[in-house]
Amino acid sequence: MSSSLSVYLLDVAATRALVGSRDDQLLKVVRESFGDDLARDDDYFSDAIQDGAPTAFEALRAVVHGGPFSEDGEHAFQYGYAYSRLCSLTGSFLHNDSFTPHRGDWLSVVDQGLKALGVTAVSVEAFGYSDLPAPLPYTYIPGCGEWTPEDIARALEQFEATKRAVDEAGEAPPLEPEVVDAVMQCVGWMRSAASRPGFGVIGFRF
What we know:
single chain, alpha+beta
């Protein structure tokens, strides 16, 4: 079974602040922008909804209002999907063809490629974790992680330092071409974020 990664360029702090903001105007915009998607997801997850899981819009409302959340952990995925919708609404989707679809431990492999180039301040595998903003409940899928502006600044410093060393030595670390492509896609994400003060990256693994 393959996985996908959706990655967004946005103001990380402002996006996290949407959780519990009680912004009903935002909910109206989301409903208008994602009405078809909400209905499609409700159809796809109809069995879970019949078993008590919130609908897609109910989950969105709970996220924006900071609760209440279902006490059944099997329903927590809906809140993760709701947060990803907020990110897709407020952020810019970043090109992800090196990561969608992917199989197995590909994110870990790319992290190893980043480390081979001296980059340790960010991790694509972290997008598979459950780092949803409090008070959203834990869910394994979708996974969620973020690269803060500080993480990105440090990672780019690390990358440029290695690049200078490689240019001087005339020899780069031996990496498979597809790993190089994925690493450079990550660098592209970071450069896009670094060009906008306060911006970072939030990613979701589905």
